[in-house]
Design goal:
Blueprint lengths: L1 H42 L6 H11 L2 H9 L8 H11 L1 E6 L3 H14 L4 E6 L2 H13 L7 E2 L4 H9 L19 E2 L3 E14 L12 H10 L1 H4 L3 E4 L5 H13 L4 H10 L3 E3 L2 H10 L4 E6 H11 L3 E4 L7 E5 L2 E2 L6 H12 L1 H9 L4 E2 L12 E2 L2 E2 L2 H4 L8 H9 L2 H13 L3
Parallel strand pairs: 1-2, 1-3, 6-7, 6-8
Antiparallel strand pairs: 3-11, 4-5, 5-8, 5-9, 5-10, 5-12, 13-14
Helix pairs in contact: 3-4, 4-14, 7-17, 8-11, 10-18, 11-18, 12-13
Length: 420
Amino acid sequence: MKRSLLILITSIIIIIAIASIILIPYLSTQRQAPVEATPRTMTSPTIARAPEEVKQTQEQIPEDIKSIMKMLPSYYPSDYWRIIQGAKAEGRLTIYSNYREEHLKRLIEEFNKLYPFISVTYVLLPTQQGYERYLSEAMSGLRNVDVVQIYDAPLVYDLLQKNLVGKYESPEAQFYPSEYVVPGYVVASLYGPYVITWNSKLLSDDKVPSTLKDLVRAINQSPDFWRGKIAIYDAILSTSGWMHMYFYNVTYPNEWTSLLRVLASAKPKYQWSAGILGDWVGKGDVVLGWTLAGWIVDGIIVKRYPEVKFKFPEDTIINLLFPDFFIARDPPHPNAAKLWIDFVLSKRAQLINVNEFGFISTRKDISLEEVKKEWGGVKLHIDAVKGKIKLLTWKEAAVDLYQKRDYYKETWYRIFVLGG
């Protein structure tokens, strides 16, 4: 009996010991869990470190970049310095443009006053060639260019449709009316007006036609005098040429082709380049340049040939709406590209375009007083020319004319080349 009781007690003690060995780690873990949780909870908040982090961020901005930031408008984002720092590391920018060289060099000069560490190279290309070169390179995956500028709005629209325009929302875009902006992609910032140009040694001022109908009347009255003595744009090779067809259609909807047939009967000389057309006028190869690019005539031709004069037409002032530079789809220097886009859209650059090179800016915070350039008493300010110029919106100039471009080219070719 005693032996059996002893065995029972011993068995109970052994069971309790085994149970203790199994349960103690578990019980210990449960007790310690809250102790471990408390330090993790107390060390995790970032709010407590926020002032220190802000201070560290400010200290990361190099002094030279801080100086640049002070020169930029207050509406630029506070982290814009990162774009500048990235552009400094890239150190290069490549441009495709059909601005004339003097104009582009002037913009680059001003750009480098802000960003002297960026080396800018450029390739100047006529509109169609610029489009074709960029299209070919982009479709082939080549990354040769950072920013592109093409006068022809329908061609830029075509590149947008092909997803070949890089996306970037410039802080300067807010200063352009919505009808000139494709948000995040393109801003149409300039109008380029065209002017009647003549050699005053060969054609007296009172004999210069002021409208297309005046010119047609003069040709009918003196066909021998005018034969071969008028210069016009080649609409196949020139955006200016086919856009002339559009404006004539709008101005004289029921008779524009008849009027142009009379002009064609005078056997005008045609070329795609305003510089060459203007030279013909200045040299006396022709007496009249019918509505040539005003910014070329004013900026180059009248300086070469003092006898050349120009004026706005009185029926329709033909003008082009120019898309400004856009970023290539995959630029090799993306930060430098952003700096360039912001610069060319800035008020500083736009006033250079207006006052030094004879364009009309669509930027809405440029006042009449800030515009110094005027032609024939008319200031090159968008408010001053309203009512005198049909000002196309982006939709009208790019989207609506995208499908009509070939029609106007074919019409010009049929009338001026085939004689039909």
